[in-house]
Amino acid sequence: MHKYSTILIALLTSFQALFGQALNMTLEGSWDNTSYSFNDCWGYTDDFGNEYAIIGSKTRVIFFDIKTPTSPVLLAEFTGSFPGISGANSIWRDFKTYDRYAYAVADQGSEGLMVFDLSDIHNGNISKVFQSNSIFTRAHNIFIDVPEGRLYIIGSDTQNNGLIVYDIKDTPSVPSLMASVSLASYGGYVHDAYVQNNLAYCSSGFDGLFVIDMSNPASPNFLSFDESAADGYNHSGWPFDNGNKMLVAEEVPTGLRLAIFDISNSNNISYLSSFRDPVNTSGSGNPTYHNPYMLEDYAVISSYEDGITIMNLTDTNSPFREAHYDTHPNSNYNGTDGCWGAYPYYPSGTIIGSDINTGLYILSTTLPLTNTCNNGIQDDFEIDIDCGGFCNTCECSAPRDFVFSDLSNSSIQIDWTAVNTAVGYEVRYRESGASTWTTATTNINMITLSGLTPSTTYEFQFRSDCGNRLTPYGTSVSYTIGSCERSIELAGSQMSGIYVSQQFIRSEANLQIGSDVEYLTGDSIILENPFEVDANTDFLAEVNTPCGIATFTGQNEVLNFTHIAPSPPEQAFSLVVNKDENVFYLVSNDSSEEFFQVELLDKDGRPIQNSKRSTKSKLLKVPITPELNEISISQGDKQYLLPFK
After folding, report:
1. Tell me, which fold does domain 573-643 have in CATH?
2. How does pLDDT run across 609-623, given as a tens digit for each residue?
3. Structure pTM?
């Protein structure tokens, strides 16, 4: 049973101060499934600025849209099942993101490595694009050295006393093995690691903290190590103070302090001090800290029975707890119940946490937490997971929204959406099934390719030149050359004339003249056939272009909005169902600016999901779910109920 309870959240917010559940933090939203037991969490921000949460249960990897923190929307759940691979029932799962991909492992079962494509997550679409257990079947953790484009598998069954390293720099969807290397002589088992620019800070359990140069993954170079005064189990750590210090949690035995190490000289690291500041000062025992993360001098820590705690480390001689939200209020510490994971790197300042028993928590804080990559450039000491996996993913990422036009039987023109801050682009292409690529570059968001084989399908991949780096290549796009009457997508200011459209969405739904219609890549809007436009009219259409006529040269941008002018509306809201794509469109015919609330209901009238939208967005695209029975719409004092057939 899913629990989306705004009443419960309101009550918790009202009483949390009385019971000491929160300090300088507020619960915005939550999600739980009482049949699940949860583990770690991670976050992702797409290049539109939308924010998402990833959380693990024993059997699943679960994705949420949290751009409205008070109303998290479940997008997808994936098991580890795959042809020839059984899904695991694992207490431990771990996730990281890189460019437009998410990576996942489990430390029980035989799922191996899973890769998820998040390129279309803003449309609610997520796909598992890779899974393999040929190199390892289980692993405790993963980490991504973003500047180097390397994925590290940590605590695996096949390299238990070492690290497995994959190259994901150019093709994130297909990790390429670089090395599986033993570190038995450098501390042995690695429980977790933080890696940047080939320097691996390895949390090696009771052996302590090790620094290893992984420039050559097949031949690691040991630099130094140290232990804390408590000599506990070095569980995980995160650097701060511009990379000069590292905060470490020592999970075992329970109740140990957080440790601070001096890592300014990687050849001679040293333990500095330790501290703790429990939320529950009246109970017995001390908190067990799990996973610490740093934003400048603030430590955001998943702290088991203390929930999420935020420590101020401005003065490392006198650290103190400045905020907390206790996901597991209790009077005595009993061990490792409560908050497993946290993620504080959203540009909005949102913080998420995962509680073992009660699921996803979405929180805000009054503290001035600073995303260190606020200028979109990796300059100074950046923590690299800002903006969902790459320091400047939010500013400069691989291009999207491609428009292919035949110029002849052997040449094509390709246009795409301009990428903010990109100084150029690179495209590589090959005939489908070929092993080698041909590469071409351009300094604008358009390219012409000639000398292609007629009536042949090609595979294309694109990436951006961000000035200081090249992005990974985006998801492959296929196109067949020289059909001469191919349908192509066009948008933006076009020349006047008569065009012939191919209608993918046909409906009796009507829209106000001059409405702004929000559409997603691949959608067609209701248009007459043929239709006529005036000069400089914005429109989206599927049109035919005869061979040899480059009708739409120099197109600068694929717009997010298009103007249409159909007949006057007959009803306030209409439905357009496209079962081939497993989606439906809710069309608003209201010209007012009043907000409306949409709830998707099952056959018992229970909500499946909801979202608040303005009527300025006239076309809302929603995935079809098996439970969907009807759509409830509230707008001011008006109620509408549309049956779903």
Report:
1. Immunoglobulin-like (2.60.40)
2. 666 565 556 667 777
3. 0.69
